[in-house]
Amino acid sequence: MSALLRRTGGAQIGWVNATWPLARLSASAQEISVSAILMGRYRFAPDQVAAFEPYGSIPLLRSGVRIVHTVQNYPDKIIFWCFGSPKRLIESITALGFHPRASRAQVLPRDGMAFRWTFLVLLVLIWNTLFLLDGFVPWKHPTGPGPYTFLAVAMLFATALGINLSAWFQGIALKPGRSASEVRPVTLLVLAISAIMLIVFGAQRLAS
């Protein structure tokens, strides 16, 4: 039976951060994985990892280990935030027998963010327009969330759901050759937040 190493800490997956104790790193000679609540689990075999790099410069607050990997449908930046020395954690991982086998040449550069700029601009314009229609303007004191605010949040929920489930919608939202898996931490977080907001808005409407 292979020796296992498990650590609890934080993580950065793509753009999204999870603070301690919402993330976990697990390692053996055959596999290393980083998982975080609402962001999923990311597994790597030795031939998918080019290096482990100490990352961050604030001991105890923002220091960790970055996994330099070759999996194109994972977010480029996967970091496990840990207490103690990142170098010591890397030594513990390699002591198990997990040794990166991929070369740096296999780590292909990404062309900026996975989203199309036109899609993001249109989404922001519709979002702001719906809030303006509900009276959220600088010269007027808002009376509270109205039907257009509910519609804006519902649009955000449907957008995140569509990116996760629909290949057709992914073609609209993402650049050619990019994967929904790259932005899954963001879309899952948006799904969770927008779902909570919709439930709260719905409860308020029923109570009024």
Compact overview of the structure:
The protein has 208 residues and is an alpha+beta fold.
List the helices and strands and how they pair.
Blueprint: E1 5-13, E2 16-27, E3 32-36, E4 40-44, E5 49-58, E6 62-69, E7 78-81, H1 86-95, H2 117-133, H3 147-165, H4 167-173, H5 184-207
Antiparallel strand pairs: 1-2, 1-7, 2-3, 3-4, 5-6, 6-7
Helix pairs in contact: 2-3, 3-4, 3-5
Explain what you see.
- This protein is α+β, with helices and mostly antiparallel strands and 208 residues long.
- It has two domains: 5-106, Roll (PH-domain like), CATH 2.30.29; 117-207, no CATH class.
- It is 37% helix and 25% strand.
- It contains five helices and seven strands.
- It has helices at residues 86-95, 117-133, 147-165, 167-173, 184-207; strands spanning 5-13, 16-27, 32-36, 40-44, 49-58, 62-69, 78-81.
- The chain has a seven-stranded antiparallel β-sheet.
- β5 and β6 (62-69) form a beta hairpin.
- α3 (147-165) crosses α4 and α3 packs antiparallel against α5.
- It is elongated, with a radius of gyration of 21 Å.
- The termini are far apart.
- 26% of the residues are buried.
- The model has no long low-confidence stretch (mean pLDDT 89).
